[in-house]
């Protein structure tokens, strides 16, 4: 019976197949030799290919590219006094803060990253401690490096040991670790672009070098009446911005409604208006607020609900309004962003590569969002993040600050960088992220 089935299989197929009884390839007529002629042809091909490779190596036409090693990782905490207190829905600040990360390699290439300024000293203290974990990895291997660093946050019975590479960071330091990963990862993408002699936006396959930008203003400020904007928003429109964002949530809704009305009057009917609550409301308060704000044609409503219920509450809120909801800037890894997409009902994702887990993780989030019809909009650091959004089909508008009064580093820290002109970020063709550092500014503002 087995012989008959095998013979039928051979008659029905010109090519060898897995046999339903024997689970082996049928014989080709040579006893004990499975698919003999085909196997011999493959063996001859492998032998010829091996000889050709050896000959190329001897003739010098083929060579092995050596791995580039990371030799040093440094962080510089920078702080600049703004001369006034700026406030949002649940915070205020009077200094601009930023962490500069510098990664050196054994091939003389240096990469830079600039990070959101939370926990600056902790980040700068941890960064050099992570460098020994990467001693055996190629600086161009961004996925392997990202995973090696992320593994510091996890353990299991099978992997836990007292080896330095497997040491586990305590959970109260996860945000610090993720920011360190961001700094190293972004700096390595800068190096990857420099090694390839390409700007990162081209390295990622983008066909555009200009991204639309909006300006964030309208803060609650200690140096003026917060019920009016005193021409600030109108000046942004005059500069060429077609989208403006203001802060809400620090005042009762009735008073913030007056601010929204004033903002719409100042920018006119054609300029888009974004409202940012910075997690100021319960979902019931947010539902009441957005119903009242909708009359002023809100482009999107950003981070409306409290941090502890920022996913499911967003989902409930999205069912009550046609105004698009945005969130993600406060997340530190892609899994949290996944939940915002799946359960939060957001239409704009603002995951921050310089605050979360770097460009590598940002690209994963962007791909997931693209499959779900969610737009990626940057949060801060447009000279880095616009390289990423430019390369994504769902890459959207970038956040910027128009004046050095709010962001002195934009004008002072960089020798070269992307340009903000007429409401758009213009990326250059310089390799990497296209910016160099003014080290005099680093010395002046180092905290």
From TrEMBL:
Residues 38-50 have a biased composition (Basic residues). Residues 20-63 are annotated as: Disordered. InterPro entries: Enolase-like_C_sf (IPR036849), Enolase-like_N (IPR029017), Enolase_C-like (IPR029065), Mandelate_racemase_C (IPR013342), Mandelate_racemase_N_dom (IPR013341), RHMD-like (IPR046945). GO terms for molecular function: hydro-lyase activity; magnesium ion binding. GO terms for biological process: carbohydrate catabolic process. Its cofactor is Mg(2+). Keywords: Magnesium, Metal-binding. Residues 230-324 form the Mandelate racemase/muconate lactonizing enzyme C-terminal domain. This is Mandelate racemase/muconate lactonizing enzyme C-terminal domain-containing protein.
């Amino acid at each position: 019976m087995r012989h008959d089935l095998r013979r039928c299989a051979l008659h029905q197929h010109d090519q060898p197949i897995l046999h339903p009884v024997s689970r082996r390839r049928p014989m080709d007529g040579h006893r004990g030799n499975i698919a003999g002629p085909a196997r011999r042809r493959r063996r001859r091909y492998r032998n010829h290919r091996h000889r050709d490779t050896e000959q190329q190596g001897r003739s010098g036409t083929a060579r092995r590219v050596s791995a580039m090693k990371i030799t040093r990782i440094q962080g510089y905490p920078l702080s600049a006094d703004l001369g006034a207190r700026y406030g949002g829905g649940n915070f205020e600040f009077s200094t601009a803060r930023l962490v500069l990360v510098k990664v050196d390699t054994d091939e003389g290439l240096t990469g830079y990253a600039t990070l959101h300024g939370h926990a600056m000293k902790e980040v700068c203290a941890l960064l050099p401690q992570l460098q020994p974990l990467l001693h055996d990895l190629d600086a161009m291997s961004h996925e392997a490096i990202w995973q090696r660093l992320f593994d510091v946050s996890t353990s299991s019975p099978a992997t836990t040991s007292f080896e330095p590479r497997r040491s586990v960071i305590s959970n109260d330091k996860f945000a610090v670790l993720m920011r360190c990963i961001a700094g190293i990862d972004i700096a390595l993408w800068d190096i990857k672009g420099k090694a390839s002699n390409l700007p990162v936006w081209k390295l990622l396959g983008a066909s555009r070098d200009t991204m639309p930008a909006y300006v964030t203003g309208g803060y609650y400020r200690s140096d003026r009446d917060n019920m009016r904007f005193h021409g600030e928003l109108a000046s942004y429109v005059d500069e060429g911005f077609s989208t403006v964002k203001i802060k809400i949530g620090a005042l009762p809704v009735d008073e913030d409604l007056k601010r929204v009305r004033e903002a719409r009057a100042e920018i006119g009917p054609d300029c888009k208006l974004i409202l940012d609550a910075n997690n100021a409301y319960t979902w019931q308060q947010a539902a009441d607020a957005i119903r009242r704000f909708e009359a002023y044609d809100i482009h999107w409503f950003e981070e409306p609900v409290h941090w502890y219920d920022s996913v499911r509450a967003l989902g409930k809120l999205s069912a009550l309004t046609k105004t698009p909801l945005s969130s993600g800037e406060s997340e530190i890894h892609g899994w949290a962003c996944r939940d915002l997409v799946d359960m939060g009902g957001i239409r704009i994702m603002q995951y921050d590569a310089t605050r979360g887990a770097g460009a590598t993780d940002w690209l994963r989030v962007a791909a997931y969002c693209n499959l779900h019809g969610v737009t990626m909009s940057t949060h801060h650091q447009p000279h880095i993040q616009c390289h990423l959004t430019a390369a994504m089909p769902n890459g959207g508008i970038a956040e910027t600050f128009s004046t050095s009064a709010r962001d002195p580093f934009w004008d002072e820290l960089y020798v070269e960088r992307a340009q903000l002109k007429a409401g758009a970020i213009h990326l250059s063709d310089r390799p990497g992220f296209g910016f160099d550092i003014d080290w005099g500014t680093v010395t002046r503002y180092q905290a």
